[in-house]
Amino acid sequence: MLQIIKLPLMILTPVIIGVFGQIMMKTGMLQIGTYSLFQKNILFQYIKIFLNPYVFLGLTAYFISTVFWLYLISKVPLNFAYPMLSISYVLVAMASYFLFKETINPINWAGIFVIMLGVILVAQGRG
Question: Hey, where are the domains in the chain?
């Protein structure tokens, strides 16, 4: 029983922490606004970005997610684990829709469905 719960938990932990990181970074960038990669004071702009609490929290979440990811890929084949990260595409799209009121058109929904179908197929092929 524990083994049945362990693998999904090992997969979902870095995915969910990574999704949280994306949400935090987006929240921070909404506060900061757009910026240009080619402006004169780009260094100061990056300092402002990285010191934003939401961006900093998002980057920290990404680091923590990476720690869990390294644990996962030490236990399962990469060709199984890596496609499971696609779950994050679905979760980020849904979070964007509900939290940031971003539009998801029918083609995007179809793509999300295909991604989930791919994740299911990869998971089924592991046995």
Answer: 2-125
Task: With residue 88 as reference, give the H or E element that holds it.
Answer: helix 87-99
Q: How far apart are CA 117 and CA 100, in angstroms?
A: 26
34: alpha, beta or left? (left if phi > 0; alpha if psi -120 to 50):
beta
Instruction: List per-residue pLDDT tens for the chain, 127 residues long.
Output: 456 678 889 999 999 999 999 999 999 999 999 888 887 888 888 899 999 999 999 999 999 999 999 999 999 998 888 888 889 999 999 999 999 999 999 999 999 999 889 888 888 876 5
Look at the pTM and tell me if it is higher than 0.85: yes
6 Cβ neighbours under 8 A, 6+ residues apart: none
Q: How far apart are CA 6 and CA 91, in angstroms?
A: 21
Is residue 34 packed enough to be buried (19+ CB in 10 Å), middle (13-18) or exposed (0-12)? exposed
Closest CA to 24 of 62, 46, 63, 57: 57
Residue located via tokens 């990869």: 122
